[in-house]
């Protein structure tokens, strides 16, 4: 038996959100398979990283609105670029401070999240 592990290196300044994680792929597949639960809903993707879930919601979720957020400016800028690359101009991308999450209240019908643990968030 043999294991091969690719070293992705360390992320500069805690920019884990610039990497596509397995959980991003899983949640995107879930969105496509279970898209009825998102139809005509306002959806927030919390700590959206590269933005694949938001792009998937925009293209195949039938959502009323899609908002993605993250806590790092560089990550949010990358989300915006990925939306443009995929022609998803109907997604709102915002930079938030974790302490501000309660201000959203009941704004969204659905909130999705992957890889929550990291800088700025502890259980």
What this model shows, in words?
The protein has 123 residues and is an alpha/beta fold. The chain has a single domain, classed as Rossmann fold (3-Layer(aba) Sandwich), CATH 3.40.50.150. Helices cover 28% and strands 16% of the residues. It is built from 3 helices and 4 strands. It has helices spanning 22-33, 52-61, 73-85; strands at residues 42-46, 65-70, 91-95, 110-113. Strands 3-2-1-4 form a 4-stranded parallel beta sheet, with helices on one face. Helix 1 runs parallel beside helix 2 (52-61). The longest helix has 13 residues, at 73-85. It is globular, with a radius of gyration of 15 Å. The N and C termini lie far apart (36 Å). Residues 1-9 have low confidence and may be disordered.
What's this entry about, in short?
The protein is an alpha/beta fold. It has three helices and four strands.
Q: Given the helix and strand composition, which structural class is it?
A: alpha/beta
Total number of domains:
1
User: What is the succession of H and E elements?
Assistant: HEHEHEE
Residue runs with pLDDT of under 50 for 5 or more positions: 1-9
- Tell me what the CATH architecture is: 3-Layer(aba) Sandwich
Strand content: 15-25%
Helix content: 25-40%
Mean residue pLDDT: 79
What would the CATH topology be? Rossmann fold
Q: In this structure, how is the largest beta sheet organized?
A: 4 strands, parallel
Oligomer: single chain
Shape assignment: globular
CATH class: Alpha Beta
C-alpha-based Rg, rounded = 15 Å
Q: Give the spatial strand order of the biggest sheet.
A: 3-2-1-4
What would you give as the CATH superfamily? Vaccinia Virus protein VP39
Q: Tell me the total number of β-strands.
A: 4
Query: Count of helical segments?
Result: 3
CA distance, first residue to last residue: 36 Å
């Amino acid at each position: 038996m043999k294991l091969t592990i690719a070293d992705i290196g360390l992320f500069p300044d805690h920019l884990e959100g610039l990497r596509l994680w397995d959980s991003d792929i899983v949640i995107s597949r879930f969105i496509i398979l279970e898209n009825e639960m998102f139809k005509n809903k306002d959806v927030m993707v919390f700590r959206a990283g590269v933005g694949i879930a938001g792009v998937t919601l925009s293209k195949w979720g039938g959502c009323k609105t899609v908002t993605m957020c993250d806590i790092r400016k560089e990550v949010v800028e990358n989300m915006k670029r990925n939306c443009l690359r995929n022609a998803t101009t109907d997604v709102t991308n915002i930079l938030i401070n974790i302490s501000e999450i309660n201000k959203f209240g009941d704004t969204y019908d659905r909130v999705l999240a992957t890889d929550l643990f990291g800088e700025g968030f502890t259980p």
